[in-house]
């Protein structure tokens, strides 16, 4: 019987194109990924049909389900400047180290008195403080949130990069990120504080919901 | 492939005692690198979320402004447990009755679409034209604003009592955008209206 010769094929195949693709994807994902800084509060945002994307440069007030107010603003140099101003107002001397830490943080919900202790505390301690805090005071007698808003605003406007941002349509926006289950009175109070400071246009941050079809 | 050649002598086997340089293969084993690449790829793919939070933009009326008289106005009242009430036109003490509705398709949406039919149809027509590329994006925006703010368009006043949830306010704002209502305001509740809500319990 004549033997049928099967041509011998090398068992190793050329992986180069696959590897090329894999690295391309890795690079893409690495460059596009922006790690979200850890938020001190979990907020369950209500969903809406709006498909407008939240503008980049925002001053955000977060209100959690218990009605506690938290503050956040974008930009490291802005945050630094803001904390210095807050320190001046409340007669707190922040160290270089504390300023640096604050610049890298995100949302904050501490009354001014506890701010220094919060910044000095280690990570695990900070989480406990976040749970225990009553948020930034918003009552009329001790309206610290208004200071955060005003100083945050001025810090953002006086920032070197602001003119450029404004030119490209990225001026500072004011956003409210409320928990769906919170009483509207708390949000109303935040809006009131905004309006007292001549801010009449805000963004309410929501989750995207599938658009219902009309007929 | 990765073994180290410990045989250093080399003299034993050579015919003429020549030290022959060992030919190294030009192929490198890429497997570990590929493993790593895919590990990273999987990690980044799983951690990346492309969805950015969405937002509703609202403009609040400047405080102490003159209240404008509107003829086609509806007042929507929100209370706890997702309850919605509404009444049409001006509030007349003793006469105005609250009508209860809900957030379903046949609830408040139908009422708003009904009352705002003229403006809504115009906006729908414009959207249709936009989809067919008959009008430009900027023209659409301008015409849509015009249609929504025309005189006969519905004006919605949103009022909340102290127990209403934020979610309901967002829901109402959503309904407004679905019904192409361009004129609306979130205002304070009056005492009489509060009493009516209490009575509706």
- The quaternary state of the protein chains shown equals heterodimer
Shape label of chain B: elongated
Flag low-confidence runs of chain A.
none
Number of helices of chain B: 6
Describe the structure.
The complex is a heterodimer of chains A (215) and B (201). With 215 residues, chain A is of the alpha/beta class. Chain A contains eight helices and five strands; from the N terminus they run H-E-E-E-H-H-H-H-H-H-E-H-E. Chain A has a five-stranded mixed sheet with strand order 1-5-4-2-3, covered by helices on one side. In chain A, a hairpin with a 5-residue loop joins strand 2 and strand 3. Chain B has 201 residues and is α/β, with parallel strands linked by helices. Chain B has a domain of 68 residues. Helix content of chain B is 37%, strand content 15%. The radius of gyration of chain B is 35 Å and the shape is elongated. About 4% of the residues of chain B have low confidence. The interface between A and B is large, with 51 and 43 residues. Strand 5 of chain A pairs antiparallel with strand 1 of chain B, so a sheet runs across the interface.
Give the tags.
heterodimer, A: 215 residues, alpha/beta, 5-stranded mixed beta sheet, 8 helices, 5 strands, elongated, B: 201 residues
